[in-house]
């Protein structure tokens, strides 16, 4: 096309040249004016027609070129889209895996619904509804997650099909060239593209059809799960509102529904394992943290026990030191009893595992520590509790279980009554346990009566609560006692802790348990006790809704939970940094001749470690609370204004603290002298540092003043110091003998360094003596003045033995006597 255009333009210019030449020749000729005028008209007409034709053909060719460009671009986009679609189809959702998971969900749904949705029996039970609800919530979460992924996959498939359809519908693709050769080539290209698009489009359609089929199944499962949960919530609500309602006939009455007890046990086992597996999968991180905390507590208690053994402080009966008797058992008991509250709404079987571990640990610690009578009481209580806990895992009611429950409740009532009436109360270490036993008697008696008269759910809640309250009370009482013992024992041996960094009144620790511990004990007991009743969630629900409700202040949305979480994380970070400072500075972490080096090594990094802990804590707190970064920017801007007006000194001290931490001009444990204040660096804080002076006082010096002052650091030179002694000897002394004597005394002193060598110099002649000066280096900075004192004593003794005198300054006073006669004459 372009060659034809070029030829036409060339022809147009040739015609113009010929026409102008003809026009010039006609002007020179002698033809008539009429002929000339006709020729001019014919020429103009032909030129206008030619111009119109050329313009039309040029426009057509331009449009054809433009269409060709759009066609090529569109075809390229079609090829790219097909490649992306092929890649996505290769890495798309695993339909086989999805079908397998849907089958598993359906199977677990059938297990969860057994006894609640199918095979309901005469009445529903609280434990069965609770276990089923936990399983269905987990299955619903998995189904919704799978539905979300399928929806996204379906959207991607639809998007690829839409893109291909849009590209194949571009009008430029249907603009054909009038050139047959060009048209033939273009049609061949379209055939190739159509051949490539067809299988991709078919695959997209097939995959979309398959995914839609899976989506229909998932949607049906989600609907069934949601409907079932709504039905269960209705049963739970009715049960909570009618907690004293009769569910069955009296224990001697007729059985309305019978199911083999073996099937009931199998159902309970299947549901219990499902709830446990699901919960562990969702809380594996917490379990790992729990394991690490147990190991950390064990290592610390073992090291504390080693210190007591080395110092022979362990008593024979471990009275007041039970926490050190079995460090692993103590670590398990303390950590599990405290950490279990971080597992929100755990399945009952997991709680039982925690309690069993606690009971085993405390039983090991009680061996040969408490009297035999109360040891037997403890074992009986634990045995009855474990049997009752096993019974509480049974989810569906039966006559067999009701009789078993009645026996257990009567045993608890009788056993508790005997202990209260005839127990050796004077031998009991924790008197509060008697209150828990009395409550157990009341609860077990109530469980027996409720069971007899058909209040199955109430009876079961009272039965497990009675035994649980005793075991939990004992576990918690001994847990806080062991914590108190651990703190007191640590205070006795950690003698170099910086109380400025860790605020705890150790003088009261070990004498009486803090009131806060009792408050936490009662709160934890109420939570664990209340979980067994149907109405607990409906009491705790409004509280959770209150703390979780969104509140708006200006443009910022927050919840009380987020604020409490922010405060909790920052509090943990601050406490952790203080604990690190507290224990890192103790002498028991150091050993042997490297003690000084270890002090400096720990102290130099302590501030950086604390800053890192607080920074990480702040980052996690901000992230957990969901505080927007733009709000932080506003706060920083406000701080900038405050710094400009009145916080320069504070910021100067904070920045100086960072400089000290990184440059390390002074470390904890260094002997320093600042503005006439000499002493040892006790701590380096964020804003200020503490220097322990030789007089016993602690000088708190801002970090800015510490950097800006003329700081003398005696420890940077390797903890050595050069000392000097000035001595005056008599003029008649043998100087060489005196020098050799002094060198010998210095060489015999082990605390004086041999390299650099000591120097004896004679300085000048004094009024009554020849003065000499001894220069020597002490190996330890703290022994410098002691060594100097001992050397003065040794030199004095050596001089006396060798008859070398140390003269004292003396002045001769001459008195002239005048005669009396002369005095009279003068008068």
From TrEMBL:
GO molecular function terms listed in the Swiss-Prot or TrEMBL record: mechanosensitive monoatomic ion channel activity
Domain Mechanosensitive ion channel MscS: 650-715
Topology with respect to the bilayer: Multi-pass membrane protein
Localization terms from the record: Cell membrane
Name of the protein this chain belongs to: Mechanosensitive ion channel-like protein
Alphabetized Pfam families for the sequence: MS_channel_2nd, MS_channel_3rd
Segments traversing the membrane: 284-301, 322-342, 348-366, 373-390, 402-421, 433-454, 466-494, 515-540, 560-584, 605-627, 633-655
An example Gene Ontology CC term for this record: plasma membrane
Family: Belongs to the MscS (TC 1.A.23) family.
High-level lineage: Bacteria, Pseudomonadati, Bacteroidota, Sphingobacteriia, Sphingobacteriales
Secretion signal, residue range per the UniProt entry: 1-24
Organism: Pedobacter metabolipauper
Keywords annotated in UniProt: Cell membrane, Membrane, Signal, Transmembrane, Transmembrane helix
Mechanosensitive ion channel MscS C-terminal domain mapped to chain residues: 725-806
């Amino acid at each position: 096309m372009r060659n034809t255009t070029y030829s036409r333009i060339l022809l147009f210019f040739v015609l113009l040249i010929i026409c102008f030449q003809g026009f010039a020749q006609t002007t020179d000729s002698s033809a008539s004016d009429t002929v000339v005028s006709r020729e001019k008209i014919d020429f103009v007409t032909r030129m206008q027609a030619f111009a119109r034709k050329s313009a039309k053909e040029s426009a057509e060719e331009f449009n054809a070129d433009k269409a060709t460009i759009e066609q090529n671009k569109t075809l390229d986009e079609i090829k790219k889209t097909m490649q992306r679609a092929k890649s996505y189809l290769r890495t798309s959702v695993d339909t086989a895996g999805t079908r397998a998971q849907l089958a598993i969900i359906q199977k677990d749904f059938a297990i969860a619904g057994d006894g609640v949705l199918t095979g309901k029996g005469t009445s529903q039970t609280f434990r069965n509804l609770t276990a089923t609800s936990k399983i269905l919530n987990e299955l619903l979460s998995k189904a919704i997650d799978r539905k979300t992924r399928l929806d996204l996959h379906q959207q991607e498939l639809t998007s690829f099909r839409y893109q291909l359809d849009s590209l194949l519908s571009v009008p430029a693709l249907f603009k054909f060239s009038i050139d047959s050769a060009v048209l033939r080539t273009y049609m061949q290209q379209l055939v190739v593209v159509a051949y490539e698009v067809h299988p991709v489009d078919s695959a997209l359609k097939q995959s979309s059809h398959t995914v839609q089929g899976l989506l229909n199944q998932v949607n049906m499962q989600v609907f069934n799960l949601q409907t079932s949960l709504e039905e269960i919530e209705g049963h739970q609500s009715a049960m909570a509102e009618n907690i004293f309602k009769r569910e069955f006939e009296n224990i001697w009455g007729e059985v309305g529904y019978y199911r083999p007890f073996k099937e009931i046990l199998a159902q309970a086992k299947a549901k219990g394992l499902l709830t446990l597996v699901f919960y562990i999968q969702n809380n594996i991180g917490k379990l790992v943290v729990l394991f690490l905390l147990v190991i950390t507590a064990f290592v610390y208690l073992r090291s504390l026990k080693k210190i007591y053994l080395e110092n022979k402080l362990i008593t024979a009966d471990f009275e007041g030191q039970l926490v050190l008797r079995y460090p692993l058992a103590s670590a398990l008991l303390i950590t599990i009893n405290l950490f279990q509250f971080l597992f929100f709404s755990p399945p009952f079987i997991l709680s039982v595992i925690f309690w069993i571990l606690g009971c085993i640990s405390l039983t090991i610690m009680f061996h040969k520590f408490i009297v035999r009578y109360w040891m037997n009481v403890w074992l009986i209580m634990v045995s009855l509790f474990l049997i009752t806990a096993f019974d509480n895992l049974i989810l569906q009611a039966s006559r067999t279980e009701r009789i078993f429950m009645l026996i257990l409740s009567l045993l608890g009532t009788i056993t508790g009554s005997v202990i209260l009436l005839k127990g050796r109360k004077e031998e009991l270490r924790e008197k509060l346990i008697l209150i828990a036993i009395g409550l157990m008697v009341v609860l077990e008696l109530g469980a027996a009566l409720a069971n007899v008269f058909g209040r199955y759910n109430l009876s079961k809640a009272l039965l497990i609560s009675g035994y649980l309250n005793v075991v939990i009370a004992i576990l918690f009482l001994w847990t806080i006692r062991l914590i108190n013992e651990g703190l007191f024992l640590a205070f006795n041996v950690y003698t170099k802790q910086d109380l400025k960094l860790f605020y705890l009144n150790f003088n009261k620790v070990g004498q009486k348990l803090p009131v806060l511990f009792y408050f936490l004990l009662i709160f934890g007991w109420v939570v664990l006790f209340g979980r067994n009743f149907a109405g607990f969630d409906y009491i705790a629900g409004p509280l959770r809704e209150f703390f979780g409700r969104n509140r708006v202040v200006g443009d910022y949305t927050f919840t009380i939970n987020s604020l409490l979480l922010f405060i909790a994380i920052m509090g943990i970070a601050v406490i952790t940094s203080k604990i690190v400072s507290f224990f890192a500075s103790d002498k028991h972490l150091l050993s042997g001749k490297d003690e000084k080096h270890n002090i400096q090594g720990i102290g130099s990094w302590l501030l950086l470690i604390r800053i890192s802990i607080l920074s990480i804590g702040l980052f996690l707190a901000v992230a957990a609370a969901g505080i927007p970064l733009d709000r932080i920017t506003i706060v920083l801007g406000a701080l900038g204004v405050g710094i400009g007006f009145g916080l320069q000194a504070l910021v100067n001290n904070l920045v100086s603290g960072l400089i000290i931490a990184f440059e390390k001009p002074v470390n904890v444990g260094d002997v320093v002298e600042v503005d006439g204040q000499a002493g040892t660096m006790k701590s380096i804080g964020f804003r200020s540092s503490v220097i322990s002076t030789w007089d016993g006082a602690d000088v708190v010096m801002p970090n800015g003043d510490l950097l800006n002052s003329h700081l003398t650091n005696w420890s940077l030179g390797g903890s050595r110091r050069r000392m000097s002694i000035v001595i005056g000897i008599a003029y008649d002394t043998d100087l060489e003998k005196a020098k050799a004597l002094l060198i010998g005394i210095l060489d015999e002193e082990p605390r004086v360094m041999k390299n650099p060598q000591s120097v004896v110099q004679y300085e000048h002649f004094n009024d009554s003596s020849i003065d000499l000066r001894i220069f020597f280096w002490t190996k330890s900075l703290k022994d410098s003045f002691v060594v100097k004192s001992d050397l003065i004593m040794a030199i004095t003794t050596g001089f006396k033995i060798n008859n070398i005198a140390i003269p004292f300054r003396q002045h001769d006073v001459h008195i002239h006597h005048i005669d009396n006669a002369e005095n009279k004459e003068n008068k």
